[in-house]
Amino acid sequence: MRRVTFAAAIGNTIETYDYAVYGFLTVVLSKLFFPGSQPGVALLSAFAVFGVAFVVRPLGSLLFGSIADRVGRRPSLVATLVLMAGATTVIGLLPTAETVGVWAPILLVVMRLLQGLAAGGEYGTAMTFAAEFTPQNRRGAMTSRVQIGSIASLLLAAGAVLLLSAVLTPEAMASWGWRVPFLLALPLGLIGFYIRARLEESPEFRALEHTGEVSQSPAKESFTRYGKLIVLVFGVAAFQQIGYYVAFTYAQSYIIQLGFTQGQATLATVVSIAVAVVLVAVGGPLSDRWGRWPMLLVLSAVMLVTAYPLFAALSSAKTLPLVVLVTVAMGIVPALYTSVAPATYIEVVPAKVRATVFAVGFALAAALLGGPALYISQFLVEATGDNRAPAYFLMFGALLSLIAALFVRRRRPQGLVVDRGEPAGEPPLDREPEGV
């Protein structure tokens, strides 16, 4: 179980690390890849490139989700890891606009698209793989451990940027320092590949193979028979996506715009993420005791009423300790929510299309809500002139997920092989009907 947890977590770690590094270096990258633009326009352009990776995530979810449901969870996990680590390493080697002109942002967009393709299948397959080894009364704890990899990678990315900002001059950071965090993806990817290539297949997929129930067209079946479940996964993921990127990625750029240095803004974000790691570890086991949908409902409601006051407090903060305190407070609810949601996705979707439905619903939320989160948050500030405006987007995501939690309540969790105590690969007994 430790090996399964670590194998699933390391891919999520690399995926989120790659995205987070770009987010934390957005201010620097905007000057290197969009140097001719006004500062505000350049920053928006860099945020737009951040969001581009999310546009292709639904395509990646169909591709790698189908591989996971037709061929196996393990081959999909290996493929997504190799593609993600490779694209991120290349970003660290890209020439800037000063060297190749317009080709610089074009190449950056291409690499971001490849990252997005890999990310579309990584999260859903990794969570599915880990959960299918775990009984229901421990599934929240297990998936939250995998989720810790995602949060910890934010800490790793923020720590790398903070360290470089502290030891390098701004000129050195703009010249070559920004490349270092991206190039770290290569050794991380090699470690992840070694671990995942040695994994065995999940008990649930082996049981499907044994009984001949493996779907031959999981993408088609997902949309024709389980479309409502895709919508449900999307709704649950809405707040997870928006809260995650607003609280743990956009907050850094937001604090810089309040007049604090990049080092101070990154420090505030690092402290917030460190607290989030602890909360994620706590939230999953709590959902095993209290249930998934009650926690999703309560957390969404809390964010709905606290988002605006938190942004109001942050926008008016004048000292670094106060900024750190409010940034930490802003990340509490998103951290707890993101520890509960993964087990929910697993339990509302039947096994033979689980990876595809999970990946597609989650990727659509990422493409429509998570990817544009930085851009939309900044656009709201620019368009309204109100530094508190990003709170409205956060509240929108919380409202969508609150409604989705009510529908989760109406669904009985799907039984897995490990829940029934059957040997992996043996014919499952009394399998429940899998219709919607």
UniProtKB/TrEMBL annotation:
Superkingdom of this protein's organism: Bacteria
Compartment list: Cell membrane
Keyword Transport: yes
SUPFAM superfamilies, per database record: MFS general substrate transporter
Transmembrane segments: 40-64, 76-94, 100-119, 148-170, 176-195, 229-247, 267-286, 293-314, 320-345, 357-377, 389-408
Membrane topology, as annotated: Multi-pass membrane protein
Major facilitator superfamily (MFS) profile domain: residues covered: 4-413
UniProt KW keywords: Cell membrane, Membrane, Symport, Transmembrane, Transmembrane helix, Transport
Listed PROSITE patterns: MFS (PS50850), SUGAR_TRANSPORT_2 (PS00217)
Main localisation: membrane
PANTHER family assigned: ALPHA-KETOGLUTARATE PERMEASE (PTHR43528:SF1)
Name of the protein this chain belongs to: MFS transporter
